């Protein structure tokens, strides 16, 4: 479970409350916090949770006003970085930039959670080419020996923030498609690269998506900042 807080919550006190609830109810979760809370959250990490950044610059340091580098993220104590989230892509990150960021994250010893996902679906399957094009620079930036440093999160843009997730059957097709590309790149061991699903994930639909969608985990947005939902996720995944 990757809990992506996005630009929430407002205060450090609220962040502590969320962190405590996630530690308690969702051991094993990766929590992607705003940069502002990153160092403090990393100090409070336990064996049961890991801290992720939500983005990071590919250069280690330099004249990049407003940015934070993967090297700084690592130095602050995080162990994961989300890269190429649809909201960062919408803000201008190209496929190539996402590849640079994945390379930098891995170089720093972080695990990159690289996001891909199409904005629209068409009858002709053009969206598959779109996913392939997004994956290409991510894989080019990941040496075969670094396979364990990569997680792919498939998040169709149309399901992010939507009332419903995609259908598990459709997700299953995407899991197969993405794993096939991973195997082409890494060889048979590419199968072990986790493929997560994100977009309107709730405690109510994780079960169905895990079984029908054959996913290895989830990237959660809205529900990650609601203590009641965090608790419900904990109960839901115990039964998986
Ligand atoms: P959501 O967001 O769970 O609120 O749909 C998912 C995401 O953007 O990662």
What is the helical fraction, as a range of percent? 40-55%
Uncertain spans: none
Bound molecules: 2-phosphoglycolic acid
First-residue to last-residue Cα separation: 13 Å
Chain-averaged pLDDT: 96
Describe the main β-sheet briefly.
8 strands, parallel, barrel
Number of strands: 8
Order of strands in the sheet with most strands: 1-2-3-4-5-6-7-8
Q: Helix tally? A: 9
Work out the strand percent: 5-15%
Rounded to an integer in angstroms, the radius of gyration calculated over CA atoms is 17 Å
Structural class designation:
alpha/beta
Outline, from the CA principal axes? Answer: globular
Topology as H/E string? EHEHEHEHHEHEHEHEH
Description:
The protein is an alpha/beta fold. Helix content is 42%, strand content 14%. The protein has helices at residues 12-25, 35-43, 70-75, 86-90, 95-107, 126-140, 168-186, 206-213, 227-238; strands at residues 2-4, 30-32, 50-53, 80-83, 111-116, 150-154, 195-198, 217-220. An eight-stranded parallel barrel has the order 1-2-3-4-5-6-7-8, surrounded by five helices. Strand 1 (2-4), helix 1 and strand 2 form a beta-alpha-beta unit. Helix 6 (126-140) packs across helix 7 and helix 7 packs across helix 8. The longest helix has 19 residues, at 168-186. The chain is globular. The model has no long low-confidence stretch (mean pLDDT 96). Bound molecules: 2-phosphoglycolic acid. 2-phosphoglycolic acid binds at residues 4, 155, 160-161, 198-201, 219-222.
Give a concise summary.
42% of the residues lie in helices and 14% in strands. With 240 residues, it is of the alpha/beta class. Helix 3 (70-75) links the parallel strand 3 and strand 4 (80-83).
């Amino acid at each position: 479970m990757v809990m992506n807080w996005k630009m929430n919550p407002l205060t450090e006190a609220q962040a502590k409350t969320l962190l405590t609830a996630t530690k308690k109810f969702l051991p094993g979760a990766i929590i992607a916090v705003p940069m502002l809370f990153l160092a403090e959250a990393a100090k409070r990490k336990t064996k049961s949770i890991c801290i992720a950044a939500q983005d990071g610059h590919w250069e280690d340091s330099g004249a990049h006003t407003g940015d934070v580098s993967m090297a700084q993220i690592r130095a602050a104590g995080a162990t994961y970085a989300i890269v190429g989230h649809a909201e960062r892509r919408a803000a201008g990150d190209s496929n190539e930039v996402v590849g640079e960021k994945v390379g930098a994250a891995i170089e720093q010893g972080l695990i990159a959670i690289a996001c891909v996902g199409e904005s629209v679906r068409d009858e002709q399957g053009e969206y598959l080419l779109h996913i392939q094009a997004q994956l290409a620079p991510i894989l080019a930036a990941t040496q075969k020996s670094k396979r364990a440093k990569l997680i792919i999160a498939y998040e169709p843009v149309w399901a992010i923030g939507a009332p419903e997730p995609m259908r598990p059957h459709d997700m299953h097709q995407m899991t197969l498609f993405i794993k096939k590309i991973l195997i082409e790149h890494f060889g048979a061991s590419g199968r072990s690269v986790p493929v997560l699903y994100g977009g309107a994930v709730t405690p109510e639909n994780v079960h169905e998506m895990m079984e029908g969608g054959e996913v290895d985990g989830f990237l959660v947005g809205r529900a990650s900042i609601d203590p009641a939902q965090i608790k419900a996720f904990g109960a839901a995944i115990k039964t998986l």
